[in-house]
């Protein structure tokens, strides 16, 4: 399943939801960001979804509104017993994550494959 929304691209890879922000809210209306973020959050209602991977490959900056939406996703994964990680952050995004201390709460991986491997239990 790949869902192309205006603000987030969402893919399901096994028990993992891969969420890719497509820009900062400067490009979008605030209400659209909230509506889309809530749609993505509702995907966690499916019992097969356990983990969330935030893929930052398409952005080099995120503002507080998008970051707030992502934090809600990361917290939902934890609340449902799953894991949450970031991947593919450019240097600027890495600095932003460090500045807001979010990087200490959720790990950052260099690639999507590494992130998926980290949250997917080995059989």
Write the layout of secondary structure elements.
Blueprint lengths: L1 E3 L3 E6 L2 E6 L8 H13 L8 E5 L8 H16 L4 E4 L3 H9 L8 E2 L2 H8 L4
Parallel strand pairs: 3-4, 4-5, 5-6
Antiparallel strand pairs: 1-2, 2-3
Helix pairs in contact: 1-2
Tell me briefly what this model is.
37% of the residues lie in helices and 21% in strands. By secondary structure, it is of the alpha/beta class.
Overall description:
This is Anti-sigma factor antagonist. InterPro entries: STAS_dom, STAS_dom_sf. Residues 1-119 form the STAS domain. Pfam families: STAS. GO terms for molecular function: anti-sigma factor antagonist activity. With 123 residues, this protein is of the alpha/beta class. The protein has a single domain (2-119), classed as Transcription Regulator spoIIAA, CATH 3.30.750. Helices cover 37% and strands 21% of the residues. It contains four helices and six strands. It has helices spanning 30-42, 64-79, 91-99, 112-119, and strands spanning 2-4, 8-13, 16-21, 51-55, 84-87, 108-109. The protein has a six-stranded mixed β-sheet. Helix 1 (30-42) runs parallel beside helix 2 (64-79). The longest helix is centred in the middle third of the chain and has 16 residues, at 64-79. The protein is globular. The mean pLDDT is 86.
